[in-house]
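Example pasted here:
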Amino acid sequence: MTEKTPPIDLFSSVSVIITPHENGFTLGIIDSKPDDERDVCSYVAKGMVQVAIDEPDYLYQKGFEAFKKKAEETNGKNEDNVIDLITHRDKKDLN
């Protein structure tokens, strides 16, 4: 029998919102957790936003390259863009 993966709990998730703006883009974080309950998701989201603020050209280029690489790997087929961080859970920086 195959084990089922538990569903994603959207109420405990952290969202990074990116939207077009006349000068490029605007971004923000939706994180309902209080400061003392922040977890790896909160810190990853904050880091993503900080990189976007500090190095938007670099981040844009990396995104462009990632889409190109994915298209080459999948022969242009559209697949989901979900990153399963559970596969990285044994890395020291994420604990």
User: Anything to note?
Assistant: The chain has a mean pLDDT of 82. Residues 56-73 form the longest helix (18 residues). The longest strand covers residues 15-21.
